[in-house]
Write a structure and sequence with these properties.
The protein is of the alpha/beta class. The chain contains eight helices and six strands.
């Protein structure tokens, strides 16, 4: 599964291209303190790619709570926005972008548009991606394939000719459901094999 064998490349953003997962987790931890829900970093990390509003619904269900999802998300996102200037691209992923800059590329993320665009601009990655698909653009989020199918459509490519880069099992499930090959990224390094 080498990028040169595919017509286009689609990347998850948080934890795949950019080291933002620690920032998301820190924001969730602060929100947990403010709203009094249990915080589990591993569980939240595994939900990478799931929109924050849906994560609050999962917290409510798992912990038997009735948190106001919109309020929790607003607080969590406020903390995240304050931490965003610390976000940096993973060096190995930046090198991969530079190596394949001639290929059509897209972002397929579970983040909101405002967060995704801010991350891309702050890290200098925006110019690589003519297509950015966010949680705001689809109704069915990862692990459903909609994010990746829309990215391929916007690039004008057959989904089966696209290679996805992901860091979570949920993201990989979404890519495979879209009929796309998927390379896992572990600690900022693609497992090209």
């Amino acid at each position: 599964m080498h990028p040169q064998h595919f017509d286009g490349l689609i990347f998850d953003l948080d934890g795949t291209l950019v080291d933002t997962m620690p920032l998301h987790l820190a924001s969730w931890e602060l929100a947990a303190r403010e709203f009094g829900f249990g915080y589990d970093a591993g569980w939240l990390y595994d939900l990478g790619g799931v929109p924050s509003r849906k994560i609050v619904d999962l917290i409510n269900g798992e912990q038997g709570l009735r948190l106001d999802g919109d309020r929790v998300v607003a607080v969590k996102n406020g903390h995240y926005q304050q931490l965003l200037p610390e976000a940096r691209p993973f060096p190995a992923m930046l090198a991969l972008l530079e190596q394949y800059a001639d290929k059509p590329m897209a972002i397929g993320t579970g983040s909101s548009r405002v967060n995704a665009e801010r991350v891309l601009l702050n890290t200098g990655l925006r110019d690589y991606f003519p297509v950015v698909i966010t949680a705001d653009d689809v109704n069915l989020h990862k692990p459903n394939p909609d994010t990746y199918l829309l990215a391929a459509r916007e690039l004008g490519l057959n989904p089966g000719h696209c290679l996805v880069f992901e860091d979570t099992p949920i993201g990989r499930q979404a890519a495979e459901a879209a009929g796309m090959a998927c390379v896992m990224v572990v600690e900022g390094r693609p497992l090209l094999g």
